[in-house]
Design a protein that fits this description.
With 392 residues, the protein is α+β, with helices and mostly antiparallel strands. The protein has three domains: 92 residues, Orthogonal Bundle (Butyryl-Coa Dehydrogenase, subunit A, domain 1); 108 residues, Butyryl-CoA Dehydrogenase, subunit A, domain 2, CATH 2.40.110.10; 137 residues, Up-down Bundle (Butyryl-CoA Dehydrogenase, subunit A, domain 3), CATH 1.20.140.10. It is built from 15 helices and eight strands. A hairpin with a 4-residue loop joins strand 2 and strand 3. The longest helix is centred in the C-terminal third of the chain and has 32 residues. The structure holds flavin-adenine dinucleotide. The site of flavin-adenine dinucleotide has 16 residues, from strand 1, strand 3 and helix 15.
Length: 392
């Protein structure tokens, strides 16, 4: 990890207290033997690592939902402390995806609701590391056009819905207790009306979770519901008004925060690869990597500015978020392309299979950043549309 480069901005972005918070988190992570836990959390060679035991330890230290109010199990800190926590998780090589999905995205959506009963029901258990939730939105033919979703929830008595449908491309559902699922609860002239968000217990009868074969490091899961009975108390937000909640919460996924971290990892991998090569244009390549580092810093500034804005206004500027997401994912692609064009893979395979494997993994994963949470084309369309609205 290129820690020095990454930290040059801290004096500018963080208050003294926030820099102290970073040190506290670093000390706590250093004091734990996470590596041993991680080693034992991978059942078979090709299995993904299950980070829940580590998250539980982080929760016991009061850090898992550090930015949530104390009444919901947090420490009442800001989104910036949350960003610091994620950065340090990655520095400590703790898998962060489940944390980002469950605490940042799903927890963030529940926090936005007006309903304090729902917050009390779900958030403390999540902050304590007892309950993890994945996101079940996408379906075949309902990805970019999410409102075309077909999974159906039918009311079967006063208290329960029955759910049938098939969700695709979810991450980490195999480790989760619940899936935050977008379902259709009524037919309407508008496809945006009649969508409801509901938390479906993933160990319930009628739920089948299976991996979707792919080249990525993190395996996508298909989740099939066959007449699964779910209490109406598990509805998140308002019945039939889920589209509004999804749209509001999607902006969390577009702050660029997790993309900055991916870019940082990518630059570290390339630096590591270069340590095992002596290329004729090495100096030029190092210059280009430094330039990518400056662009990465630009994304980090955008991301922190969005988080600070959210902290202040409880809303995110949609144009800025689309720009941050687009810029970050396109930058990650440029860096991967640069690696492909400039590294000597034959030499690398002879000198460091670790560096080669890390690059190969990133090569398979990075294209996904242009698709998840809204594709690059959708971001451009959004930016153009929002600007047009302002001018018009
Ligand atoms: C890493 C990763 C993690 C994910 N995690 C989850 C998860 O946890 N839960 C979940 O529910 N889903 C998840 N997804 C799925 C993700 O939300 C979808 O991949 C995404 O919405 C795109 O949908 P799609 O794959 O069906 O592609 P499509 O919607 O078919 O798009 C394919 C291409 O067509 C373009 N396109 C589509 N419509 C238009 C248009 N109107 N104008 C211009 N171009 C267009 C898109 O930009 C894209 O390039 C994840 C995906 C990835 C890559």
């Amino acid at each position: 990890m290129n820690r020095d480069l990454f930290q040059t901005l801290d004096n500018y972005l963080l208050t003294d207290q926030q820099q102290q918070f970073r040190q506290q988190v670093q000390e706590f992570f250093r004091s734990q033997n996470f590596w041993n836990i991680l080693k034992n959390s991978q059942l078979e060679k090709n299995d993904e690592i299950d980070p829940r035991r580590i998250y539980k330890l982080i929760a016991e230290h009061g850090l898992l939902a550090v930015h949530w109010p104390q009444s919901f199990g947090g420490q009442g800190k800001t989104m910036v402390e949350l960003a610091i926590l994620v950065e340090e998780m990655i520095n400590a090589e703790i898998p962060e995806t489940l944390f980002i999905l469950s605490i940042l995205f799903v927890g963030g959506l529940i926090l936005l609701l007006d309903d304090s009963q729902q917050k009390e029901k779900w958030l403390p258990e999540m902050a304590a590391g007892n309950c993890f939730v994945s996101i079940l939105y996408s379906e075949s033919g309902a990805g970019s056009d999410l409102a075309a979703l077909k999974t159906r929830a039918t009311k079967i008595n006063d208290e329960e819905y029955e759910i049938t449908g098939r969700k695709l491309y979810s991450l980490k559902s195999q480790f989760c207790d619940y899936g935050l699922c977008a379902v259709r609860t009524r037919e309407s002239d508008s496809k945006y009306d009649g969508i409801t968000l509901i938390l479906i217990p993933l160990r319930a009868e009628g739920v089948c979770i299976k991996p979707i074969p792919s080249m990525t490091k993190e395996v996508f899961q298909e989740v099939i519901f066959e007449k699964v009975k779910v209490s109406e108390k598990n509805i998140v937000g308002k019945l039939n008004e889920g589209w509004l909640a999804i749209s509001k919460a999607l902006w969390f996924e577009r702050t660029g925060l997790d993309y900055v971290l991916k870019i940082n990892q990518l630059l570290s991998i390339l630096t590591h690869c270069l340590e095992h090569q002596s290329l004729p244009n090495q100096a030029e390549i190092i210059n280009q990597l430094l330039y990518f580092g400056v662009k990465r810093d630009a994304v980090r500034i955008m991301s922190y500015s969005l988080l600070n804005q959210y902290q202040k206004d409880k809303a995110i500027d949609e144009t800025k978020a689309s720009m941050a997401k687009w810029y970050a994912s396109e930058l990650a692609m440029q860096i991967i392309q640069f690696g492909i064009e400039n590294l000597d893979f034959f030499k690398l395979s002879q000198q460091s299979t670790v560096a080669l494997d890390a690059f190969a993994m990133a090569y398979r994963d990075i294209p996904g950043t242009r698709l998840s949470a809204g594709s690059s084309e959708m971001m451009l369309e959004m930016i153009a549309g929002l600007q047009f609205k302002k001018i018009g």
